[in-house]
Amino acid sequence: MTSTPTPTGSPIPLPPQASLDGHGRLLHEDDPAAQLALSLAGIEGCLAAAGLGPDDLASLRVTTVDHDRIGPVLDVLTERFAQTGARPLLTVEQVEQLTPPGLLVRLDGTACRPTGPAPTTPGTPGPLTRENPMTTTTHRTEPDHTAPDHTALLGAAPGRVHLPGTPEYDAARVPWNLAVDQRPAAVATPHTVEEVVALVRTARRLGLRVAPQSTGHGAAPLQGRLAGSLLLRMHELTGVQVDGAARTARVVGGTTWAPVVRAAAEHGLTAAHGSAPDVGVVGYTLSGGMSFYGRQHGLAVNHVRAVELVTPDGRLVRCSATEETELFWAVRGAGGNLGVVVALEIDLLPHPDVHAGMLLWDASATDRVVSGWARWVQGLPESVTTSLRVMHFPPIPELPPFLSGRDVVVIDGAVLEGDAEASRLLSPLRDLAPELDTFGRVPAPALLDVHMDPPAPTPAGTAHAVLRHLDVAGAAAFARASLEPSGLMFTELRHVGGAFGRAPESAGALGSLAGDLVLHCVGVAPTPEAFAAVQRDSAAVLAAMRPWGVAGRSLTFTDEPGPQPGACADAFGAGAWARVAEVRRSVDPGGVMQASVEVG
């Protein structure tokens, strides 16, 4: 018996492979990485039996009953692809069950024969017609898909879609946080809203998820989870229009804060921006947004007037207080979980200038500065928003002399008062004799540079917690933890409370932030070992401050890898979390959208 040759270049289906022995018995129960590796070995065995190599693998489909467990270990596949030269288009589908019970994942796919039929031995069934004891039956939660067609995806936005194995792909997939190695099925950089619509529609038809991303500051939760996704980098779809009379701005989806603040300043206005000029407006704002105006003006998300987004089924929708009101409520907190945001309309703030700056001491003053600041913030009006950081700088020439190679403690922020009243409010801190004092009246755009965030993409690991006000013991614990030798670059306390803690009647799903302080740990992590050290040292600081912790979360600072389902629920009230989940199921029943911070 001989097999029928498959025409050159025609897709050859590969039989499903799973972590089973020759009798169909489950191997490696409860070990997703091992199940994935054994399934891939089966796929490679099928290729070899057909006279093909790994580089002939055209597509690979991962079928799983638990995407949250399989996603973090998909690097088993990508590392093997790198070793063998395979470049398949990878998709991931979730189903209700696989058999036998305990089976977490199954692989199947297609190959393309480059030169002709595979050799076969007479009397032996060909590899594509043999009976396979590893084949399983599933009950899908969404329709079965054939292997995605590269041509269809490339045609959705010509010149804007890049596939693995190309220099354009490797350049476009890199996020701002260089510690995160993003390896999506494809990456696109649209220039128009029409391209976004076409890309979302095509990705959905091909069974790919869609992960929108502007800058990638908070990319760590996506680590290892993009193998079946189109990464939609929005950083080239930008623009801002300011209406000075209405005190509003329309901000295009991939825009960062610097051009928005500059445009607003021309009208004597500013925005509830973050502490860095290169952070994306959409991701920051829809995840809450903590600005140095926040104790008086609240979370940035409460200044959103309208959202324009491409829904998971490829419709361009505008939502506001009078249009698509339930979607408007949910997207203010759920963001990219509900669609690709292509524009925001936001209210601007009437501050052409601001009393702002920083105070700096040598780290030897940490105890008295931390305890003094902890007492000082408890009696402040809401016009004052500051942060305190204990910072450790390497001795590198790129840093100014007052920072290079030093450990320092810094207080910075803004005082929304006249100069005389601002000076009076700051006097208890000045009594602590800082070696550097830059507080004074500055144009509003200068506030973007006060916090001294890294000016270029950086490999980093972070962690955070929400705290109540620190008593004497709490201030001492923070000072001690922040000075412990570690891999952290800085340990920060941001003063919140005030309007941060009040949700206006018009608020969306996320309208307020619990607690009095947000603790934020950041470390530079150029290697996996350094990243692990940052995680370890951050966990030690969080553990030391746990007695002062309160229930809550800042989505703006959520950037931990491997998030668990429901990990962000503590940023919302129970009722809001359930309502967001219901909106998400209604808008995206097929689970097309993949946000960095999973909500609902």
From TrEMBL:
GO MF terms, alphabetically ordered: FAD binding; oxidoreductase activity
Domain of life per record: Bacteria
Keywords, ordered alphabetically: FAD, Flavoprotein, Oxidoreductase
Compositional bias of kind Low complexity: 126-138
InterPro entries cross-referenced by the UniProt entry: FAD-bd_PCMH (IPR016166), FAD-bd_PCMH-like_sf (IPR036318), FAD-bd_PCMH_sub1 (IPR016167), FAD-bd_PCMH_sub2 (IPR016169), FAD-linked_Oxidoreductase (IPR050416), Oxid_FAD_bind_N (IPR006094), Oxy_OxRdtase_FAD_BS (IPR006093), RutC-like_sf (IPR035959)
Residue ranges occupied by any FAD-binding PCMH-type domain in the UniProt entry: 180-351
Protein name: FAD/FMN-containing dehydrogenase/enamine deaminase RidA (YjgF/YER057c/UK114 family)
Homology family: Belongs to the oxygen-dependent FAD-linked oxidoreductase family.
Biased composition (Pro residues): 116-125
Cofactor dependence: FAD
Span list, region Disordered: 115-146
